[in-house]
Design brief:
This protein is an all-alpha fold. The protein has one domain. Helices cover 74% and strands 0% of the residues. It contains 16 helices and no strands. The radius of gyration is 21 Å and the shape is globular.
Length: 316
């Protein structure tokens, strides 16, 4: 997320929280407690839109940023607020991340390979692209608590982001994590070990958000971490290793992911090889489409940056 250089300006715009603030935060905590209770003690009564396996960390990391974002919109001056489509993009991105992890879909993703690949494409590509397009960092900081602004302004955060969003490291992590979690021995353990499954989910989502926030940043470098040309190259470069991986899985003629047979396939009429074939196509095509979208967005950002630069130049 962006906004480290704007923290002081954002803090100066923040006002005392209105009374509904505590009520809204209390409602978030109460809903989380209710979902936790039903998930752990009355799972048969959980509706399909509720969590199959409630995760406090995932719930809090989605609901509170959404609350901070909405509160930030009320604290920023009208001219400083993002366009409506960016606001919708951010909220849709969060909703998608929540939908594939904290609803009954997560149960299905653990029992069909191709549904799990749809989940990972949502976590690593589609949701993060929507969040990256929103440029939500300054708004979240405007509505977030003081400790969040202090962390964002700290040297540790700045240095960590400089390393993680160094272009070559960012591309290696983005592609490497996709390959790592689909390496058959690792994938088997992740699918049968609840703790490792959560780690897999977290790393896919966090890496996706960090990568696409860097690529889709509307600002030139500096203050952005990489030049526009490098970001355009990255959006294309990460596409090809994923196409190769998708093709390898699509054309495999034997079961390379036995954990789904071990746990029981939700759709038993779909064979292991057919499940893999569909999953390979999901790995192959949607990520390539997201890379193409990313490239188009970067090119549009280059054009807008050039227009702003020309407007700032004095006429001869």
């Amino acid at each position: 997320m962006q906004g480290g250089g704007r923290v002081s300006a954002i803090v100066s715009q923040a006002r005392r929280a209105p009374p509904w603030d505590l009520l809204a935060q209390g409602a978030i905590l109460a809903l989380g407690a209710l979902l936790f209770t039903v998930s752990h003690w009355f799972p048969a009564d959980m509706p399909v839109f509720g969590p199959y396996d409630f995760s406090t960390s995932i719930y809090a990391s989605i609901t509170f940023p959404a609350f901070w974002y909405l509160r930030g919109l009320t604290r920023l001056a009208p001219e400083a607020r993002p366009d409506l489509w960016r606001r919708v993009s951010f909220l849709l991105g969060l909703a998608l991340l929540y939908g594939v992890t904290q609803t009954a879909y997560d149960y299905l993703a653990q029992r069909m390979f191709f549904l799990g690949r749809i989940q990972h494409v949502a976590l690593h590509h589609i949701g993060p692209v929507l969040i990256g397009l929103s440029m939500a960092g300054p708004v979240i900081l405007a509505g977030g608590p003081e400790w969040l602004r202090r962390i964002a302004a700290s040297r540790i955060a700045a240095r960590s982001m400089a390393v993680i969003q160094q272009p070559l490291i960012a591309a290696f992590l983005f592609v490497g994590l996709f390959y790592f979690w689909l390496f058959p021995p690792v994938h088997f353990v992740a699918m049968v070990n609840p703790t490792l499954y959560v780690v897999m989910t977290w790393t896919m989502a966090l890496d996706g958000v960090l990568f696409w926030a860097m690529v889709l940043d509307t600002r030139p470098a500096p203050p952005a971490s990489a030049p526009f040309g490098m970001r355009a190259a990255l959006s294309v470069a990460v596409m090809f290793p994923q196409i190769v991986l998708g093709a390898l899985i699509t054309f495999a003629n034997h079961d390379i992911y036995p954990s789904y047979a071990y746990c029981g396939r939700y759709l038993p009429n779909i064979s292991a090889v057919s499940d893999q074939t569909i999953g390979g196509v999901v790995i192959w095509i949607p990520p390539a489409m997201m890379s193409a979208v990313g490239l188009l967005v970067v090119l549009a950002n280059i054009r807008r940056a050039d227009e702003r630069r020309r407007r700032r130049q004095p006429s001869a």
